[in-house]
Design brief:
With about 140 residues, the chain is α/β, with parallel strands linked by helices. The radius of gyration is 23 Å and the shape is elongated. It has one domain: Protein Binding, DinI Protein, Chain A, CATH 3.30.910. α3 packs antiparallel against α4 and α4 packs across α5. The longest helix is centred in the last third of the chain and has 25 residues. The chain is about 40% helix and about 10% strand.
Length: about 140
């Protein structure tokens, strides 16, 4: 019976240490498997929402780069126009200009990613071992 339970646990993807409760007993705490992927088991700690372009799965990353996204947005002609002309960012024109600025930054990041041999570009990413991640903000700014 124990062998059958061990085989079933293995097939279900559970560790062998997760033995079933003796009959007649129920677990009080719920068991949770999975959850959001924060890059555990990989050298990187990431939030997928911070991915600008390239790979976004932490287990696939080999040579990521980071940028100062707000500085890049501020360097675009569209955002400079919003500031210069005092356009309300929540107005229809402000929203349109902001969308164009984001698109311009995305295109420039993609160009730098491809030419520099990076697997992805992130707003924020760090290594678990505290080693530095390449910052390509200046390279991207030159393309804006």
């Amino acid at each position: 019976m124990k062998l059958l339970a061990l085989i079933l646990l293995t097939l279900a993807g559970l560790p062998a240490s997760a033995t079933p409760l003796p009959t007649g007993q129920e677990s009080v705490a719920p068991t949770v498997f999975g959850g959001p992927d924060d890059g555990r088991g990989t050298p990187y700690h990431v939030n997928k929402a911070d991915n600008i372009c390239g790979l976004d799965e932490p287990r696939q990353l080999t040579n990521p780069a980071s940028v100062n996204y707000s500085a890049l947005l501020d360097a675009t002609p569209e955002m400079k126009k919003i500031v210069k002309d005092k356009i309300d960012p929540t107005s229809s024109e402000g929203i349109t200009l902001t969308a164009k600025a984001r698109s311009r930054v995305l295109s420039a990041c993609e160009s730098v990613r491809q030419s520099g041999g990076y697997c992805s570009v992130w707003k924020s990413i760090r290594r678990r071992d505290k080693k530095a991640i390449s910052d390509v903000t200046d390279s991207v700014k030159r393309l804006l």
